[in-house]
Amino acid sequence: MTVHRRSLIASAAALALPLARPALAQGNLESTLLIRSTGGVFEAALKRNFFDPFSKATGVRVIPFSATYGDMMAKTAAMQAAGRVEWDIIAPQFSELSQISQYLTDLGDCGATPNVTQQGVAGACGRYGVLYLTGGQCLTWNPDLFKTRAPQSWADFFDVQAFPGRRALPNTGSPWATLILAALADGVPREQLFPMDLDRIFRKLDTIKPHIATWWRTGDQSQKMWEGDDIAMSLMWSGSAFAAKRRGAKLAWTYNQAIADFGAWAILKGAPHPNAARAFIDFYMTNPEAHAAFSRETGYTTSNKASQALLSTEEKEELISSPERLAGIVTVDYDWLAANRAAVLNRFNAWVSA
Q1: What is the C-alpha radius of gyration for the chain, rounded to an integer number of angstroms?
Q2: Mean pLDDT over residues 211-218, rounded?
Q3: What would the pLDDT profile of 109-149 be if each residue is shown by its tens digit?
């Protein structure tokens, strides 16, 4: 399956209003379900709006587990190699499902999860996973430090003379957004980001490395660092920025040059609880009110196409889901990434550690 940028954006932006009920055959469901999350307030919002209601409806106990993106993919590969799969649902990027399909259950046309096609946005059903949220990886900053002029691009992130202060970047085992922002800051046009000129990118990264005060590993850490790390600017997931601001952090962000964060639910091949996993994904796509509540709590748009109609204009203001914002989002070429993943990751890890 090749997922194109235009189809992803159309999927994320679609709005229509049919309703259906989840098809839950409790007698066929296992008693437990393990789902990858990222911890913190994001996991709490998933639990409150989706995990707990699913457990109440089915009796299936949902056990979320936290893992960085890199750890999730490393353990997924290790479990498959060992023939001992312990997890049920992981959360990769929707765009990379075909590149990691050797680890994933083939969902076909999502016939076993009819609510995905009936209540999800157009294109939410992928052969190896289901789109479940739409966000961006954004430039964020402390507005108290930049009262006369706010940063608006990744070039500003690298400009420590005009925008002084300590920076933060992720070290999650998935450095692609960091590489992209460095290329954009160095003047590479977005349509020429791939194939990546890694020598040029790392030369640019060398100029900002002395100013990186925090390498955050989880969304929760990226929120809490604003409380005590004296950070001026960072790359953050839009939902994490939204949550941090709600917790009282002095925080602003822009969707200009935001890098796509389109999350998927994917069932691992050989998952120990496959029936419960399919039932959860089908259940997830129902109940627009829960999706709207989740968006209000996390700042992410979900793939339930009825939910956005329940949000006020003010509530939508900080979401990425407007057509204008989605049109400007930067996407990763996961075909290139699949061919170069190990070498690029090794080089980035060595660079961070040096």
Answers
A1: 20
A2: 95
A3: 999 999 999 999 999 999 999 999 999 999 999 999 999 99
Q: Compute the distance between CA of residue 115 and CA of residue 271 in angstroms, rounded to an integer.
A: 21
pTM of the model: 0.85
Q: What range defines the domain where residue 228 resides?
A: 136-259
Distance CA 247, CA 298 (A): 11
- Domain harbouring 110, CATH code: 3.40.190.10
CB 208 within 8 A of CB 167: yes
DSSP code for 113: -
Where does residue 126 rank: exposed (0-12), middle (13-18), buried (19+ CB within 10 A)? buried
- Report the DSSP pairing between strands 252-267 and 129-141: antiparallel
Task: Say if strands 166-170 and 129-141 run parallel, antiparallel, or are unpaired.
Answer: unpaired
pLDDT of amino acid 247: 85
The tally of domains found in the chain comes to 2
Residues 119 and 160 in one domain: no
Domain co-membership, 81 together with 174: no
Would you say residue 350 lies in a domain? Answer: no
Contacts (Cβ under 8 Å, ≥6 apart) of 66: 36, 37, 38, 39, 43, 218
Task: Please report whether residue 214 resides in a domain.
Answer: yes
353 lies in a domain? no
Residue 232 near residue 215, CB atoms below 8 Å: no
| 3-state DSSP helix/strand/coil % of the chain, to nearest 5 | 50, 20, 30
Contact (CB, 8 A) for 168 and 225: yes
